[in-house]
Amino acid sequence: MVIDDEPLAVKLLADYIRKTPGLELVYSTTKVLEALPVLEDGGIDLLFLDIQMPELTGLQLIKVLGPRCKVVLTTAYQEYALQSYEYDVADYLLKPVTFDRFALCIQKVRSRLQETTPQPVASAAYIFVKTEYRVQKVTLDSLLYIEALRDYIAFHTTEEKILSLESMRHMEEVLPAQQFIRIHKSYIINKDNIDFLERGKVVIRGQYLPIGDTYKEIVQQKIKPV
């Protein structure tokens, strides 16, 4: 994601992202408040964030977000450099950003992501998740799908619905990828419990779950008819 109140700065970084293999521009905007719902939904690994913006400064946004994603700060003012590193940012780009400096930044970010990415639960039969008052055991075979709500995520199992303080992004990282697929910003499904697919929806136990445009290709790759 790119957030900068200068349209030309947004366009430049968007072009750099499109030229770089392995990167996907999910969202870009000049309005920081419009980006908040997208960031809160998860799914953003890296945010290029301007510091000086009228509605909310980049540093204020970092405080609001917490550790949701890696952040690269961008600014035309070098004096912010020292202050920015107090927020554990991945990098600091001084405008105008050149492509070679951008490429170095991406190398640095990739190294940090590799260091912090949790290992998937490859063969576990269950996981433990945080609820409001306890740590709950969830058997993976009984887990039908996970749904993102406003302040929680819901684990829909064959027996019950469990509200948890976990994040969609974290669950996407730790659940075994061969069994669980993210089909929408609000849904991760257990492939083993799918009844059928119909008209852009996955059906599990009578629940029709939409497949988001961003995830259609992934779903097609992982759910192929014989």
UniProtKB/TrEMBL annotation:
Domain of life where this protein originates: Bacteria
Residues bearing 4-aspartylphosphate are D50
Q: Where is the HTH LytTR-type domain?
A: 127-199
Q: Which organism is it from?
A: Filimonas lacunae
Domain Response regulatory residue range list: 1-110
Which Pfam families does the record associate with it? Answer: LytTR, Response_reg
Q: Which GO terms describe its molecular function?
A: DNA binding; phosphorelay response regulator activity
Q: Which Gene3D superfamilies match?
A: 3.40.50.2300, LytTr DNA-binding domain
* Protein name per UniProt: Two component transcriptional regulator, LytTR family
Q: Which UniProt keywords apply?
A: Phosphoprotein
Asked if the record carries the keyword NAD, the reply is no
